[in-house]
Amino acid sequence: MAPHFDNISAVLAHHGQDELLQFMDRYWVADRGSNAHLWAHEYNKHATCINTLAPSCYGDGYNTGVEVVDYFVRAAALFTKLDTYTALADAGIVPSQRAHYPLMDVQKAIEQFSGGKVVLRCSGGRRDILHEAWYMFFVKGSLQTGEFVPAQDLGPKGDAGNCVPWVRYLPKRSKGRRS
């Protein structure tokens, strides 16, 4: 297992990943709390169970924190390929304060774009505000160099989505302003 890290920004900076940090500051933004807290949470929740990120997998040349770099480099690369906004816009689904969209249309647009299954999660008291999309993959090989193959099945636990049949896709907010 990969070790836990709390100061992701410092680790990435130590490894010369200034461009990656700028990218993350722009696109991997916390909806509450600090970006640094979000990144540590995501790394410690997801990366620590990826066996190819274990220090022992790096051999004698292991440099503390390189697994953090590998995880976030791969996550950023996947993010740039999985442009949820464009997938939805191409299907006529755009952010709006008023519009409601059939959940099935939202899911279909994203799945056609990504080539695999996706789980949609919603927030709000009625679970009608589209909040996140979970893309599912199988990895052939390691996280670092492997091929990410879109999953065609969600497995025995099925869809973990929690949205109602009609959802809202709200414009993003940034520092208290709409963007």
UniProtKB/TrEMBL annotation:
One of its GO biological process terms is: RNA catabolic process
Which keywords are on file for this protein?
Answer: Endonuclease, Hydrolase, Nuclease
Among its keywords, does the record have Nuclease? yes
Q: Pfam family of this protein, just one?
A: Ribonuclease_T2
**Broad enzyme group:** lyase
Is the Cell division keyword given for this protein? no
Record's GO cellular component terms: extracellular region
Listed GO MF terms: ribonuclease T2 activity; RNA binding
| Coiled coil ranges | none
EC numbers listed for it are 4.6.1.19
Tree of life domain: Eukaryota
Q: Which InterPro entries match?
A: RNase_T2-like (IPR001568), RNase_T2-like_sf (IPR036430), RNase_T2_His_AS_2 (IPR033130)
Could you tell me which PANTHER family the record lists for this protein? RIBONUCLEASE T2
State the family named in the UniProt similarity comment for this chain: Belongs to the RNase T2 family.
This chain belongs to the protein called: ribonuclease T2
Q: What is the lineage of its organism?
A: Eukaryota, Fungi, Dikarya, Ascomycota, Pezizomycotina
